[in-house]
Amino acid sequence: MEAQGKWAISGQPKGEKLLIRNSTIKAVTTSSSYSAICDFTGGITLEGCKITKPVGGKTQGGDIVNADGSVTQEIVIEMDNPYDLNGDGKVSTADIQVIINEMKKPQASQDMKYDLNGDEKISTADIQVIINEMKK
């Protein structure tokens, strides 16, 4: 998900809670007074994902802020494990099935986010990446 605006992703300071689970989000604010994700006074919970930008970013008082506690205009949250393709919190044969399903599609309609080895095609080589991850 991508959100941009004065309040890219914002609650109302009335106890709202925000849960971000197994997601990739980019939020950018045009304001210098508010963080790109703010005003969730009931708390912000991240499950299966983490703040990757700003480096050292954290939740504080219902906002996501820089490591020093200052507001941040751009926030990126990414899934913890890029090989957990079905978002169930683990790398397993179910993730291999996601690649197999993608391989069955015509090449022009395949989603290249499943090109795990970066060779610009969805193939058994991507399945091998999952198998290698499962062995860890």
Structure description:
The protein is of the alpha/beta class. 17% of the residues lie in helices and 29% in strands. It has two helices and ten strands. The strands form four sheets. Strands 1-4-10-7 form a four-stranded mixed β-sheet, with no helix packed on it. A two-stranded parallel ribbon has the order 2-5. A two-stranded parallel sheet has the order 3-6. Strand 8 (58-60) and strand 9 (63-65) form a beta hairpin.
What are its keywords?
alpha/beta; four-stranded mixed beta sheet; two-stranded parallel ribbon; 2 helices
Task: Decide which structural class fits the backbone.
Answer: alpha/beta
In which order are the strands of the major sheet placed?
1-4-10-7
Which segments are poorly predicted (pLDDT under 50) over 5 or more consecutive residues?
none
Distance between the termini: 30 Å
Write the layout of secondary structure elements.
Blueprint: E1 2-5, E2 9-10, E3 17-21, E4 25-29, E5 37-38, E6 43-47, E7 49-53, E8 58-60, E9 63-65, E10 74-79, H1 93-103, H2 124-135
Parallel strand pairs: 1-4, 2-5, 3-6
Antiparallel strand pairs: 4-10, 7-10, 8-9
Briefly say what this structure is.
The chain is an alpha/beta fold and 136 residues long. The chain has two helices and ten strands; from the N terminus they run ββββββββββαα. It has helices at 93-103, 124-135, and strands at residues 2-5, 9-10, 17-21, 25-29, 37-38, 43-47, 49-53, 58-60, 63-65, 74-79.
